[in-house]
Amino acid sequence: MKDRLIVSGSPHIYTRESVSRIMWTVVVSLIPAGIAGVIIFGWDALWITLAAVGAAVSTELIFELAAGKKITVLDGSAVITGILLAFNLPAGVPLWLPVIGAVVSMVVGKLLFGGLGQNIFNPALVGRVFLMASWPKYMTTFTRPFCDTVASATPLAALKEGKVLEHIPYWDLFIGNHGGCIGEVCILALLIGAAILFIKGYISWQIPVTYIVTTGLFMYVFGGNGFFKGDWLFHILSGGLILGAFFMATDYVATPLTAKGQIIFGVGCGVLTAVIRIWGGYPEGVSYAILMMNAATPFIDRYTKNRIYGSK
Amino acid sequence: MVKLTENKHYSENKPTRSMPLPPKVYLSLIQHLGKICVPEVKVGDKVSCGQKIASLPSGVYSPIHASISGTVEAIQDCPHPVLGRAKAVVIRGEGETDTDFSRFIRKESDSLTAQELRDIILEAGIVGMGGASFPTHIKLNPPKPIGTLIINGAECEPYLTADARLMVEKSREIAAGISLITGCLGIKEVCIGIERNKPEAIEAFSGMPGIKVKVLPSDYPQGGEKQLIRNIMGRDLPRGKYPFDIGVLVQNVSTIFAIYEAVYKGKPLFERIVTVTGSCVKEPVNLLVRVGTPVRDLIKFCGLKEEPAKIIIGGPMMGIAQYTDDVPLIKSSNGLLLMNEKEAAAFEEDPCIRCAACVRGCPVGLMPCQLNLASERSFWGMTKDMGVMDCIECGVCNYVCPSHRRLLQTIKRAKLEVRK
Predict the structure, then answer these.
(1) In angstroms, rounded to a whole number, what is the distance separating the alpha carbons of residues A271 and A294?
(2) Residues contacting residue A162 through CB under 8 Å, at least 6 positions apart
(3) Are A293 and A269 in contact (CB under 8 A)?
(4) Which of A96-107 are b and which e, b meaning 16 or more Cβ less than 10 Å from the residue's Cβ?
(5) Residues B319 and B222 in one domain
(6) 3-class DSSP assignment, residue B40
(7) Which of B316, B344, B372 is where one domain is finished?
(8) Given B238, B339, B402, which is nearest A19 (Cβ)?
(9) Are residues B322 and B176 in the same domain?
């Protein structure tokens, strides 16, 4: 018999899941949308994504080396932040833009809070709103699908400006044949990725479903000329709602813990998104809606604790 | 509740075998929840199997019996599977043991009163054999009338199959033990809860008059008292209350069998079925073993495929890792699990990513990740407000955590601090 037996507290078996396994699966689930982005907007989409990922990973690495902390770049979470940031950018931006965005995302959004698990906002969205506020011109100049360098408005922006644009078929919205950000346009690809996360059990229905349904419902009621005349399907399929609902509003760290809290979070995101789209100054409200609800998460957590067994 | 890899295939279809008598047994003077017993024998005394060797005049205790015939060699500190170390009576055996206790059998069981039944159980040294080892004679003296007897045949711990085998092999004896309790305590309703993964046991109890079989999903911790009450009665045990407060008595199948043997065979509790299992074991078995047998004798009997790196008494979720293979079994030891180096490897902790797997998994509705953070910062008052004392220490939170955080360890610490 070994003289030195391993002794530890119970339990003695563990799940095979790990943080890096979850994170890398999320990376894989984002690949379909990335491929769609490259097909629709050309190779620029790929270079922007790689620039953002590279910048995010190097920022984390340098920060951790400088701070003498454990190197965590291989856990995949910095990669996700880079990808999500890039997916929220138009394909025509210069390459330094995603780099600056990723640095801000990582430093302000994540590392200054203490790294993985400590951030209160979704890091990618922090980077995005920073870029939005600093270089609005680049951030709102979209390329037309399948042909380089021609500027085009997103369907939501056109709507905001009161233009009566030619009706975009829902099918084109669904497959991404319209102006928009790299990773948000192809709903089909996003749903494939979301399905991976559902099957693996990494995300639950509460946030995405309540988010999308609330936005659709709100737009249906208030989004048209008169009540109950809004084009809810158009609003669900355009802009960053699907990307946001499945991949950013579900970010574990900055969302509530219980199912009840997650439903409140999803409904809140939906209402805020719709309010910004209808009455706000921006054509799109997904980023701000999620960030605002991120800020409300500790509050939601406090009031949505699970019922303890045997309590009234 | 959570689905676990059950790993019961090692031993679930193996009929119980008796282990040859060990050369020596180490009978701890405390094998129950309560006060430590005082030895009633001296070094050098001859004892016979089943003889009472330690007891107390009163209080919460359960007497200890010699599990082999022989000579008392020493009364000394020995390893203890739960407490680390405790005083024990060491008996050196003298070959085969006389296990005929027919001379002790009392009168017809039909005329037993509740008090007589409790006396027999006390004299036989019976404790809850599912793990908590609370003295059974006290549990059978509830301050309130009992309407429902719930028999715990869930055996939700992975690997363990001792209760499952007992239910298949001794179903009639268990039924007789149940009638003893219901008769003496005037209980109307009996329900046995068995997990779906034990079809043979379910089959064995189906159709028995007066016993309702409740087939439970194979989720951990299905065999926890609170979970059994919820899933069988359809209601929760209110916080801070005992089962008898809502007219319920929960007993493990092994305990029921021990009661049967005490009443009908006159046999005190000195042996039990132990599942010896794990990837290191050459021949995993369900073994009828004398209480006090050291673990190394069991390992020798079953043979090794590889050197174990971790020895666990109990199951992998709530069992206790041992420092040495000298440690003897006690009355509540239902399993011996040997893990190899790879299985026993510890993980490094990552930060909590708030994935809420522990929140979804917690069978009592706590927020383990928040308790963990509060405990790490020594915010004991906060952990109390968050319900830390309701934790049943099942280990689900720790199991599901992708960051491999020591959730249960910190929660147990908080419970200790709150109790102070």
Answers:
(1) 14
(2) none
(3) yes
(4) ebbbbbbbbbbb
(5) no
(6) coil
(7) B344
(8) B402
(9) no
Pairing mode of beta strands B285-290, B189-195: unpaired
Residues of chain B neighbouring A203 (CB-CB closer than 8 A): none
Quote the tokens at residue B159.
């690997």
> What pLDDT, in 10s, does the model give residues B112-170?
889 999 999 999 999 999 878 999 999 999 999 999 999 999 999 999 999 999 999 99
Cβ distance of B354 and A252 shorter than 8 Å: yes
- B88 and B224 share one domain: no
Give the residue ranges of DSSP H helices in B234-312.
253-264, 295-302
Contact between B297 and B133 under an 8 Å Cβ cutoff? The reply is no
| Token digits of residue A37 | 């982005």
Residue B4 belongs to some domain of the structure:
no
- CATH number of A19-301: 1.10.3430, 3.90.1010, 1.10.4100, 1.10.3470? 1.10.3430
Co-location of B120 and B225 in the same domain: yes
DSSP string for A69-119 = PPP-GGGSHHHHHHHHHHHTSBTTS-THHHHHHHHHHHHHHTGGGTSTTT-
Is A17 within 8 Å of chain B by CB?
yes
Query: Is B369 found in the same domain as B339?
Result: no
DSSP per-residue codes, B86-155:
EEEEEEEE-SS-----GGG--S-GGG--HHHHHHHHHHTT-B-TTTT--BHHHHTS-SS---EEEEEE--
**Buried b or exposed e, range B132-168, using 16+ CB within 10 angstroms:** ebbbbbbbbebeeebebbbbbbbbbbbbbbbbbbbbb
Strand (E) or helix (H) holding A33: helix A19-41
The verdict on B123 and B27 lying in the same domain is no
A residues 97-136 closer than 8 Å to B (CB): 115-118
Q: What is the pTM of this model?
A: 0.91
Residue B69, helix vs strand vs coil? coil
The 3-state DSSP class for residue A225 equals coil
List, in sequence order, the alpha helices (H) in B294-336: 295-302
Task: Give the phi and the psi of residue A222 in degrees, each rounded to 5.
Answer: -110, -10
Contacting A residues, span 56-85, partner chain B, CB-CB under 8 Å? 75
Beta bridge partners of B304: B281
What tokens appear for B287 in the block?
């073994």
For chain A, the domains span: 19-301
Residue B117 exposure: Cα atoms within 13 Å on the Cβ side:
26
| Residue B124 belongs to domain spanning | 103-264
Last residue of a domain, one of B202, B232, B264: B264
CB contact B111 to A (< 8 Å): no
Q: Report helix, strand or coil for A183.
A: coil
A45, containing H or E segment: helix A43-67
- Tell me the chain B residues in contact with residue A121 when contact means C-beta distances shorter than 8 Å: none
Mutate to test the interface with A, among B312, B384, B404 (most CBs of A within 10 A): B312
Per DSSP bridges, beta strands B64-65 and B52-55 are: antiparallel
**Within a domain: B5:** no
DSSP 3-state assignment of B79?
strand
Q: Looking at CA atoms only, how far is residue A16 from chain B in angstroms?
A: 8
Q: How many structural domains does chain B have?
A: 4
* Each residue's pLDDT tens digit, A246-295: 999 999 999 999 999 999 999 999 999 999 999 988 888 899 999 999 99
**Phi–psi pair at B336, nearest 5 degrees:** -130, 110
* Per-residue pLDDT tens digits for A93-122: 999 999 999 999 999 999 999 999 999 999
Is A211 in contact with A245 (CB distance < 8 Å)? Answer: yes
Would you give the DSSP letter of residue A307? P
Q: Is the ipTM of this complex over 0.90?
A: yes
